[in-house]
Amino acid sequence: MIKNNQHKYSISAMCKVLQLPRSTYYYEAKERQAEDDITSDIIEIFHSSYQNYGTRKIKKELKKRGKSVSRRRRIGRIMKEQGLISTYTLAQFKPHSSGTNESEQKNELDRQFTQNEALSVVVSDLTYVRVNKKWQYICVFVDLYNREIIGYSAGRNKNALLVYRALASIKTDLRKIKLFHTDRGSEFKNKLIDEALATFNIQRSLSMKGCPYDNAVAEATFKIIKTEFIRGRHFDSLGELENELHNYIYWFNYKRIHGTLGYLSPIEFKLGHLKKVV
């Protein structure tokens, strides 16, 4: 009432009529403003995350802005009031099977997913996405050091050329990569890929047959991509998919915070470690 009529009457007069201490009014007004500010921040953070962040990551982002807010009680309540539902609360995709090869190449990585040096181990995988009622495919290369997607490609065919294009997209000296690990899909173990890896003296590693846990980080990365980027999206053309994928991967590397990286983005994590070394 006071707020709606303050253009007509003084706040002091209205508080006197309502027998309300002015200090109480100003305190409640300040609380409402703070609540409105927090709500605006939560809405902004949620939508800038491709509608993916839940209460935990939103709390971390609010802390970066100097705002300490309870995760379940306040953030959860505001998200519910604003109808903000993370994509992670929705159904997940079913796995898509692919052919394997019988190469005698061993699993040199041996599930050593924590690496202390950039490009010491790069892992890769493929997934599928619907584009104009047809299946198209995405390939990504992930640096185990900071979970950064360092190379990627999209195309109509799930083949060695798709993998080769993702390898070629990496914007760094490929000779710095020490080990390349994937599952046993025929797209990864063939003459084209073998020759490319040999050219840059990159050691090879393959998962055990039928064991997705041997390539767990790549599997987890694609689960993120399926949930955050593919699910519920419609792409009219391969060009649109490539453009949107480029934007998403930029966000993934530079903005998206990862629990395994101490709630830093891959680039923040890498830059932080470079400063420590210097």
What does this structure look like?
- This protein is of the alpha/beta class.
- 44% of the residues lie in helices and 13% in strands.
- It has ten helices and five strands; from the N terminus they run αααααβββαβαβααα.
- A five-stranded mixed sheet has the order 3-2-1-4-5, sandwiched between helices.
- β1 (121-131) and β2 (134-143) form a beta hairpin.
- The chain is elongated.
- The termini are far apart.
- Residues 91-99 have low confidence and may be disordered.
What structural class results from the helix and strand content?
alpha/beta
- Mean pLDDT comes to 84
Cα Rg: 25 Å
Sheet with the most strands, sense and barrel status: 5 strands, mixed
Instruction: Tell me the strand order in the biggest sheet.
Output: 3-2-1-4-5
What low-confidence regions span 5 or more consecutive residues with pLDDT below 50?
A: 91-99
Helical content class? 40-55%
> What is the approximate shape?
elongated
Question: Helix count, per DSSP?
Answer: 10
Strand content: 5-15%
Between the first and last Cα atoms, what is the distance in angstroms?
A: 59 Å
Strand tally is 5
**Strand and helix order:** HHHHHEEEHEHEHHH
Salient structural properties:
278 residues, alpha/beta, 10 helices, elongated
How would the blueprint of this fold be written?
Blueprint: H1 2-5, H2 11-17, H3 22-48, H4 55-64, H5 71-82, E1 121-131, E2 134-143, E3 148-155, H6 160-168, E4 179-182, H7 191-199, E5 203-206, H8 216-230, H9 238-254, H10 266-277
Parallel strand pairs: 1-4, 4-5
Antiparallel strand pairs: 1-2, 2-3
